[in-house]
Amino acid sequence: MTTHAPYPIGTPGRPWGAAEKADWLSRQSRKRSFEADVLSVIERLRPRFDVQEYGRLDYGPDTYPLLAIRSRDWQDGLPGALVTGGVHGYETSGVHGALQFVERQMADYAGRINLVVAPCVSPWAYEMIQRWNLHAVDPNRSFRDDSPAQESAALMRLVAPLRDRLLVHIDLHETTDTDESEFRPALAARDGVAYVPDEVPDGFYLVGDSGNPQPEFQRAVIAAVAQVTHIAPADRDGAIIGSPVVAPGVINYPVKQLGLCMGITDARYVTTTEVYPDSPRATPEQCNAAQVAAVCAAIDFALAHGCVE
C-alpha cells in the first residue's frame, strides 16, 4: 500500500486558517514574467486588433492589468466567440496557445464572428506557476456571484454584456504531473480532507458541460486536435480524472454548479481543453498547436452548425 507524506503546511484534517495561508504565500516566488511573456506579445498585436483593459489586480506591491483582445471589425449582427486562457496560471499552453491563435488565426475570422480573447486571466499565478491566486483561491471554482477571486469577477464583468451574443466559448487548460505532486495535495490540505491520489491522463482531452453536452461539437474538436497530438485514453475504470468517458477524449462536468470558467456564458457550444505537457510524446510547440487547433475547430463547428437563438 502506498502512503503519502502529509502536505508541509497545516495539520492533517484541519482546514487552513490565516496563518497557514500566509505560510503558503510566503513560499511563492516569481519564476517568469507576465510583462515579458504576455504583455509584450499583446503590444505587438495592437496594430491589428483592439485591446481592452477589463480590470486590474492590485496584489501589492505589484499590479497586473487584465487584458482582452477583440476583433477590430466588430459587427453587432454577428455571433460571438470567447477564448480564455490562463485561468490557472501554471497551465502554460493555455496562455501561449491563446496568444498564438490571435497572432496566426484570428484575422481569418474577420467579418464572420466577433472574437474576444482573454489570454491570461490569472497573471499573478502565471508568474508564480501556481493554480491558485494570491489568496489561495482557485479562480476556476470561483465564477459565481460574489466571487472570492478578483480574476474571476473581472472576467465575468467583461463577458456580461456579451452573454446573449456568444455562440461558442473555449477555455484553454492543461492537466500536468504537478496536479498530483503539488496542487491536489495542497487542495486537500487547505480544505482539511484526505488526499486521494488519481492518475494523470497521458494525452489531450476535453471537458464538456453535462447540462449541455453537445457531443458532435466535442467530437469535432477532438478530431482536429488528434492531427496535432495524441488523445488521452480512458483509465481501467473507463474514466479520466475520475469522470466517465462519454466519447473518446471527452468527459462532462456540471460546469455552472462548480463555478467553472466555461459556465460564465449562455453559449450553445462550450468546452474546456486539457493538454498534457509532461508527456514524452508532446513538445511545448505541440501543446500550443493543440490549443490553437481546438480553438479553430470549435469556432468552425459553431459557425457551420449553430446560430445565436
Write down the overall geometry. Answer: globular
Domain module count: 1
Report how far apart the termini are. 54 Å
Helix-and-strand structural type: alpha/beta
CATH architect. name: 3-Layer(aba) Sandwich
Strand content: 15-25%
CATH third-tier fold name: Aminopeptidase
Radius of gyration: 19 Å
Number of strands: 10
The run of helices and strands is HHEEEHEHHEHEHEEEHEH
Task: Find the CATH superfamily.
Answer: Zn peptidases
Number of helices: 9
Major β-sheet strand ordering: 1-2-4-3-5-10-6-9
Segments where pLDDT lies below 50 for 5+ residues? none
Tell me the name of the CATH class: Alpha Beta
Family: Belongs to the peptidase M14 family.
Domain Peptidase M14: 30-309
InterPro entries: Peptidase_M14 (IPR000834)
Protein name: M14 family metallocarboxypeptidase
Structural description of this entry:
By secondary structure, the protein is of the alpha/beta class. The chain has one domain: Zn peptidases (Aminopeptidase), CATH 3.40.630.10. Helix content is 33%, strand content 19%. It has nine helices and ten strands. The protein has helices at 18-26, 34-45, 92-104, 123-128, 150-159, 178-191, 215-225, 255-258, 284-305, and strands at 50-59, 62-70, 80-85, 114-118, 166-174, 205-209, 239-240, 243-244, 250-253, 269-275. β1 and β2 form a beta hairpin. α3 (92-104) crosses α9 and α7 (215-225) runs antiparallel to α9. The protein is globular. The termini are far apart. The model has no long low-confidence stretch (mean pLDDT 96). It comes from Luteimonas salinilitoris.
